[in-house]
Amino acid sequence: MTPGLCPITGDAATLVQEIPPALLRGLWRRAFRVEPTPLPAARIGIWRAPCGLVFFAPAEEGDAAFYAALYRRLDKDGRLRRAGRDRAEYPHAAARIRPGDAVLEVGAGAGAFARLIPQARYLGLDPNAAAYASPDVAIRAEPLAAYRGVHDVACAFQVIEHVADPLGFGREMLRCLRPGGLLILGAPLWPSAMTAIPDFAFNAPPHHLSWWSESAMRALAERLGLVVEEIRPLPPVPAQPLIHWMGRLAPVKAPPGGPWFAARRSWYASLAAAYGLGRAAAAILPLPRNAAPMFVFMAARKP
Fold it and tell me: Could you give the CA distance from residue 178 to residue 92 in angstroms, rounded to a whole number?
């Protein structure tokens, strides 16, 4: 395969490994009992860009059927929604929002972030807005293009890793901001406990299409012409301990520099053991105070 191009900078990236689509399809079916649609017919490359972004190519965003099935599996008894009420980025983002600010959240889900910023005028956008209907929080299924230049803050927490064109996504969010407005992004971190779990389909297409680092966030800000105010790694939150414990307790760990996926019995067994041990640990142990970072946070201002 010829070298891929970084979706942020356009620089040539290094191919770390190739994954047969059949391997990913089997991992999704066995681990989550969902059909991963769509998946490319060709082998999927995992590329590492000079800026510190790891990305999958070719890769396509998961379709509505995939996410409907996945969320049904993950949200048994409301577990997913309860966990989503607390994200590592929320308090850091809330501290930057002033009274009266017009705040737009993309990929808002049920709008849990809104409860932390009662001083602001909040609007959430989500393609599944009907599922989150509430008289208390405004969630709409509308395109970003409908809100050009009218917000003081635009934020997206753990959304950018799901899109095939992160630079284009960032540009669309910028168009929603007034001059001097603030863009706030959060994403899962590479390397981290999540990337240490071998054969972890949840961190692969069609769900996650890129893995982020502090330097990748900085490169994105530079390409968008933003003035960075803060970029920092963040640890997991007590409400979401499972992946921390899975990465920590996996008998076989994927190397930080890859490969991360392989058709090996030892990796399949390690993934199963990580899940069992992780669930047990999450149920009885508090999240360590020194838990390694799992997310990266950026706040950057539009000139």
Answer: 21
CA distance 16 to 57: 11
Amino acid identity of residue 196, one-letter, is: A
pLDDT above 50 (res 13): yes
Q: Can you give the CATH number for the domain in which 101 is found?
A: 3.40.50.150
277 located within any domain: yes
CA quadruple 105, 61, 25, 245: dihedral sign: negative
Number of domains in the chain: 1
The token pair at 179 is 């001059």
Please state the pTM of the whole predicted model. 0.95
In a domain, 4, yes or no: no
* Predicted local distance difference test score (pLDDT) of residue 216: 98
**pLDDT tens digit sequence for 244-253:** 999 999 999 9
- Name the residue with tokens 């890793």: 161
Domain region containing 240: 14-301
Residue in the block written with tokens 């293009």: 145
Nearest Cα neighbor of 27 from 162, 202, 191, 193 is 202
Nearest in space to 224 (alpha carbons), one of 171, 298, 301: 171
Q: Which of helix, strand or coil describes residue 242? A: helix
DSSP state letter for 43: P
Q: Does 1 score more than 50 pLDDT?
A: no
Give, rounded to a whole angstrom, the gap between the first and last alpha carbons of the chain. 39
Q: How far apart are CA 110 and CA 134, in angstroms?
A: 8
CA 215 to chain centre: 16
In this prediction, residues 222-238 reach a mean pLDDT of: 97
Distance CA 125, CA 222 (A): 26
Torsion angles phi and psi, residue 276, rounded to 5: -65, -50
183: amino acid identity, one letter: L
